Automatic annotation (TrEMBL):
Belongs to the Ahb/Nir family. It holds the Pfam family NirdL-like_HTH. It catalyses: siroheme + 2 H(+) = 12,18-didecarboxysiroheme + 2 CO2. Coiled coil: none annotated. InterPro entries: AsnC_trans_reg2, HTH-Siroheme_Decarb, NirdL-like_HTH, Tscrpt_reg_AsnC-like, WH-like_DNA-bd_sf. Pathway: Porphyrin-containing compound metabolism. Residues 15-58, 181-226 form the Siroheme decarboxylase NirL-like HTH domain. The keyword Cytoplasm does not apply. SMART domains: HTH_ASNC. Residues 72-146, 238-325 form the Siroheme decarboxylase AsnC-like ligand binding domain. Its EC number is 4.1.1.111. Keywords: Lyase. This is siroheme decarboxylase.
Length: 332
């Protein structure tokens, strides 16, 4: 392969990673549509996506479901002695309900996200984790969402995408799924198959017509049940290795207004309210800031706290250290 071919491949990879994290074409032949936009052959798009998946730069192509719109989920934390951390993390990883599991800099040093098809199944999994590991689990379910996106602008353009809505969103009861929808969620959890007609393949797995699958996915996107449909990148493999969870203790009367302001800031991928759990956990406003260098993230946090007049509020910065597990949520 010559230098021109390498340059072309790099350009295709960059566009796939950067441009199609959202607004993915929901049509019978989506990869052909991507190829048309990129002015390359459909086979080149499929080969590039398969290579990016093998390299770990993308987790899958598909749906990210909005939290608490179907099933149940929670952020959870454990305070584990350092010499037992790897062993406990391995035990937690064995639960299919756990999709993210990180070591963070704090006395609560193990943080994971658990998701299940119902609140009862979620609580049963958390109870089993406590029983298996011997350590209590701090449960921090989502109370109010200000911004959840987890897209990464690789071209340096950090402006919030115009279609991403930043506002306070309290939660109602999850949407109940019928049998067809449950089967479709199960199929979507694995991501789109990298074939010419991927939605037709999904339809055969679910046992319905391709148009039915596409219509339901479009409706879920319009209703906000699917938060984003597109290329799901793995930020660590793309150079975003300095990742911090910034938490504040904000008076309840002010937390929504401050959360909405913080959610509008560039570089803030997640922003939401979770419960305090006194006396062990005092913080109720959470946000995630991802960067390529620790000093860059620390400077951004200091600038945000000063400009948004948050310096009077107690806070903590929990940088992630070890990534024990990262995969898609399992709702079914």
């Amino acid at each position: 392969m010559n230098r021109l071919d390498n340059t072309l491949d790099e350009a295709i990879n960059f566009r796939l990673l950067n441009d199609f994290q959202r607004d993915f074409p929901l049509c019978s032949a989506p990869f052909a549509e991507l190829a048309s936009r990129l002015r390359v052959a459909e086979g080149a798009v499929l080969r590039a996506l398969e290579a990016l998946r093998r390299e770990g730069k993308i987790a899958r192509v598909g749906a990210i479901f909005a939290p608490k719109r179907i099933g149940a989920s929670t952020l959870a934390a454990m305070a584990v002695p350092a010499d037992k951390l790897a062993m406990v993390a391995a035990a937690v990883n064995r639960f299919p309900e756990v999709n993210h599991n990180y070591e963070r800099e704090h006395c609560y040093n193990l943080w994971f996200v658990a998701t299940a098809g119902s609140e009862g199944r979620l609580q049963a999994a958390l109870g089993a984790i406590e029983q298996m590991t011997g350590w209590p689990v701090l449960k921090l379910p989502l109370l109010e969402e200000y911004h959840i996106d987890l897209g990464f602008a690789l071209d340096g353009q950090n402006e919030r995408p115009s279609k991403v809505r930043v506002c306070s969103q309290p939660f109602a009861a999850p949407t109940p799924l019928d049998e067809f929808e449950r089967r479709l969620v199960m199929a979507l959890q694995e991501g789109l198959p990298l074939f010419i007609r991927p939605f037709s393949v999904l339809a055969s797995r679910v046992g319905c017509d391709e148009n039915e699958v596409l219509e339901r996915i479009r409706r879920w996107c319009a209703e906000g049940i699917i938060k984003r449909f597109g290329v799901i990148v793995r930020h660590h493999e793309l150079g975003y290795t300095a990742n911090a969870m910034l938490v504040h203790d904000i008076p309840d009367a002010s937390v929504s207004a401050i959360g909405e302001r913080l959610a509008c800031e560039s570089g803030v991928n997640l922003c939401y309210r979770r419960p305090r759990v006194p006396p062990t956990w005092r913080y109720n406003l959470f946000c995630m800031i991802h960067g390529q260098a620790r000093a860059e993230v620390e400077a951004r946090i200091a600038e945000l706290r000063a400009r948004l007049q948050l310096t009077d509020y107690a806070h903590a910065v929990l940088f992630s250290l070890t990534r024990f597990k990262q995969c898609g949520a399992r709702y079914a």
